[in-house]
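job 3f2a | input accepted
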Amino acid sequence: MIPSAPLPDPLPTATPPSAQARDGWRLLHVDDWLIIADKDSGLLSVPGRGPDKQDSLGLRVQAEFADALMVHRLDMNTSGLLVIARGAEMHSRLSRMFRERRIDKEYVALVDGLPAATSGEIDLPLAADWERRPRQRVDLVNGKPSLTRYRVVGFDPERGVARVELRPKTGRSHQLRVHLQSLGHPIIGDGFYADAAALAKAERLCLHASRLAFPHPQHGDWLEFVSAPPF
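job 3f2a | predicted structure (231 res):
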């Protein structure tokens, strides 16, 4: 049972004091093999189509680390942690770790309303919504298997907003956003999947990649990185 209490005030910083601030991102870790970056909402992970969508985290990191290669991505309006490889060999190793689900990922979201079950799994296949690209949709016939585990950790009854921890076991495009919408509790501030009331509850998409944990692909030491959500 989740107590009806206001959500905590936003944390003063989104990353540990040791993080090195850059333009639109922070450097949490760098070694000869990989980089951990903490991206702001509103910054693309990789360049998009058109001259107005070339600025991205990938290019900003490459300006400082010429061998940096993006391994995975976050939606432009999702903030939080990303793994970046240094060099083609490490890119191949890290990509394989993601495919094999050896990298533990956690997210935090603020959603509209309070889910009936305070924890559970959302196991719904997803496919592209071709008529409304880049949106995705639940497709029970042609969709790819998609699984998200969630846990409600707080509720603000005045705003009608719940704080939810998410652990995606697959990595489909917009997976967390569509899965939460499918529960009837879209992420607030989501311009694609929230209704007008939920969209108006936040000035940004309230979704943040808050934790990454995995064995180092070079020497096997356990790595764990945490970024507090700025909402």
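job 3f2a | The first strand starts at residue 20 and ends at 21.
job 3f2a | closed
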